[in-house]
Amino acid sequence: MSVPSTTPRPVAANSVWPQLESLLPQVTKPIQYVGGELGAVVKDWDAATVRWALMYPDAYEVGLPNQGVQILYEVLNELPDVLAERTYAVWPDLEKLMRAHGVPQFTVDAHRPVRDFDLFGVSFATELGYTNLLTAIDLAGVPLLAADRTDADPVIVAGGHAAFNPEPIADFVDAAVLGDGEEAVLEITAIVREWKAEGCPGGRDELLLRLARTESVYVPRFYDVDYLPDGRIQRVVPNRADVPFRVHKRTTMDLDAWPYPKKPLVPLAETVHERYAVEIFRGCTRGCRFCQAGMITRPVRERSITTVGQMVQQGLEFSGFHEVGLLSLSSADHSEIGDMCSGLAEQYQGTNVSLSLPSTRVDAFNIDLAQELSRNGRRTGLTFAPEGGSERIRKVINKMVSKDDLIRTVVTAYTNGWRQVKLYFMCGLPTETDEDVLEIAAMAHEVIKAGRAATGSKDIRCTVSIGGFVPKPHTPFQWASMERPEVIDHRLKLLKQAINADRSLGRAIGYRYHDGEPSLIEGLLSRGDRRVGAVIRRVWENGGRFDGWSEHFSYQRWVDAATEVLPAFGVDLDWYTTREREELEVLPWDHLDSGLDKDWLWQDWQDSLSEYEQDDCRWTPCFDCGVCPAMDTEIQIGPTGRKLLPLTPVNGLKLPAGAQQ
């Protein structure tokens, strides 16, 4: 463990803007580093007791719309003695200039050095952002290894879905939070506030110990990992008596008590999403066996229809956005989605406000929903996710959607004015064959034929989008082997040929895919242990940045790093990716409690191999996955019997100065 340093933390942070401003004309999209967006907050540094730097480890255009960071940013800044600012990954052109001119990683709000903050919170939606984390830490002037940090360095806290297995980055982060962040950041803030008020007794280790004692903050330095001779983990155990054996996830139960964001950030530069997004419920019990998000966010907790209405009204009035995204893992499953959409459509009829359901299940979309979503004449994109091409593979993954369901749903969209839909599938699923994948082409052909017949028009299109399957922790597929990239690529090639075999239909079908190589590396990172951290560092030292972007990702760089680093541990890249795990194997994340019973997950894995489908426990008896009793929670669904409030139609939205027109 590191010895606490007596180096004092800076009492004030100077802006790096004077040095940064002269560099911006030399980089692409300089506006993304300027800050000052509508909704941004700049507070007095000296008036704050606890100071957070929040990061989504990707470019501004991807990071700014991130709902989780926006919520935490607002929750923290509402506290009078707390300051929160944002930072994003800088593109390589600016990174090079920053290193040459000694400009550190900075926040976009007040351009303060990240190293001067008490806490540096990083939210990971995907493991491919790990190299960007190392860039930010290094640019900030903070030691890469947590063991080398002193009291003068911020405490680096990982969050987001990838934090449910933070072991690959355990050497680089000081702590990780599992689950919902709203209450967690307030608890962490209170601990830091009290520790500082007492004069920072015991230094950095004492602060981390106080965080670990909450039993909901994981501090890797307090846990040791022992390995068996064959490379498997023997055990993960605390190295001191006063920290818990297992760390539990946080679950925010009453979403109505957390109606954020109230003041959404309005970007200065183009971003991937420009809309007011409101999360209408959290969690999912559909039971898709590949879906980590659905498993780790259980139980289902719905936001009431009245709170959604109030949030939309307040969010639109503040931001001036013209689109409302009703977010969740499966938005059409909200028990009051019909009344919610009709109420919002009535309220904003005659305006240019449109509604969208970014995630829509095939079997939950109907004509009434279609009509409400298109009432104002603007039709946002529709994406349906059958995930598997054949009926058989959909039983394996527990995606209970038939071919007839899909065609009926897509025809409903076409007959209600949509001319383009997107169908999302995965390749490389457990037990998958070439024939399973080729059925995607047959399904796409049927969709086009049915759409043309129903509308009497050939102006019908669909896009087939293929993602590579990646086994994730805390899912029934956490034991599964991955297919090698060449197998995935072969199947994708066959699929493309099959789609274009009928030219009259193939012309109406777009085809997008991710090849097998990035998926294999994501699989290494998602199910890796602490030994994988050395691979991440080697990749980063060799220039790895923005690995989630195809133009920056280098498969060979990762393969070379794994080949150089892993043999010293007696393992290799295949050991982490294409190897199927055994039932009793200790998994790197077993000491991190998502609430799911490991025996239940194993049984569901066996059920998948038997092609047995599991129902949704919202509407059927409990299947004893373990979440509700383990987390002392319960499923919370309506209907409330209420209507959307306020009911007064909005004839025109008053836009704030500087908002979008």
Automatic annotation (TrEMBL):
Signal peptide: none annotated. Transmembrane segments: none annotated. It comes from the Bacteria. Residues 270-512 form the Radical SAM core domain. Pfam families: Radical_SAM (PF04055), Radical_SAM_N2 (PF19864). One of its GO terms (molecular function) is catalytic activity. PROSITE patterns: RADICAL_SAM. InterPro entries: CHP03960_rSAM, Elp3/MiaA/NifB-like_rSAM, Radical_SAM_N2, rSAM, rSAM_horseshoe, rSAM_sf. This is B12-binding domain-containing radical SAM protein. It comes from Micromonospora craterilacus.
